[in-house]
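Suppose a colleague, Dr. K., hands you the sequence of a protein chain of 341 amino acids and asks what its three-dimensional shape might be. Before reaching for any lab equipment, you can write down a predicted structure in token form. Begin with the sequence itself:
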Amino acid sequence: MRPFTILALLFVVLGQAVALEVGQKAPSLAKVTWMKGAAVETGTAITVVEFWATWCGPCRTSIPHLSELQKKYQDKVRIVGISNEDADTVKPFIAEMGAKMDYHVGIADVMTYGSYMEGIDGIPHAFVVDAGGMVVWRGHPSSMDAVLAQVVSGTFDAKKAGAIATAESELQRLLQGRAPDIAQALKKIDELLALDAVNTQAISVRLAIGKYEEDPQLIRETLTRLPLKELPAEFANSLAFARATDPELANRHLDVAMTLVNHALTLEPDHPGFFDTKARLFACLGLMDQAIAWQERAIAKSKTERADLATTLAYYQSVKKLAATLANDGKTPAPAPATVP
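The predicted structure, expressed as tokens, is then:
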């Protein structure tokens, strides 16, 4: 069962071989149907091409951040959000988001979508394309801030980016097949992290290996070695949330997770998703008053996920009532807790 387990874990992390890699020319956007903003084509200015969907929670979380980047860089960068849903789905969503989705938005035809996203299963997924039309980076949009800043300032190291892309491909090769080479993969991860200390693929694969090897210490070591000052807020929060929800209690490392989400909140103090993660960590610690307080803050700040957040709040409140009843030595009937969100 263990080979299947790691293959399943690493398939989620690495995905299949992708058609569009760093160093290749970005496909044209000529057949995109534009729903917001003017038409955009790659190869004329620095462009971020991000693929998303209305149903995707992490995509929704990324939208305000992308709007902030567009506002920051103005005409130096064009942020483009592309879905493969129909206009009747996308157009009302754009209208609902209003100024919170303040960048170019379009709907891709099958050919354009496939030319970018073939072999990539997860969204959101972004491509940073330089002014010459070459892909210089791809990955989760929460991790692209430093690269984008370097591309804009002219300090981007294309040679280093190429070395990182090569190492990522080699890491994927080491983990393919029914007998992945874990020892060599860990060495390759160390090489990757020496090039890019917050490389999301290297970190995610190392955590997956720790889970497969049933090695909580490897998971803890991976997280504690991260340079917090370089860690993007969204990625820090996603790492913390994964700890809070890991089914294996030994893998949770709640102290490290709390450090990660606190770092995320330092960078983005009013992010409802980060409040939700912190609430979950307090709930894991049995501190239900704090969990309830942070979840209420999440609901107050959220514009799009209030119903889900409210369901979680109701669960925390029911757990608190149950604990109070049990502390009363069972003298009154214990209320049934709400469904676990």
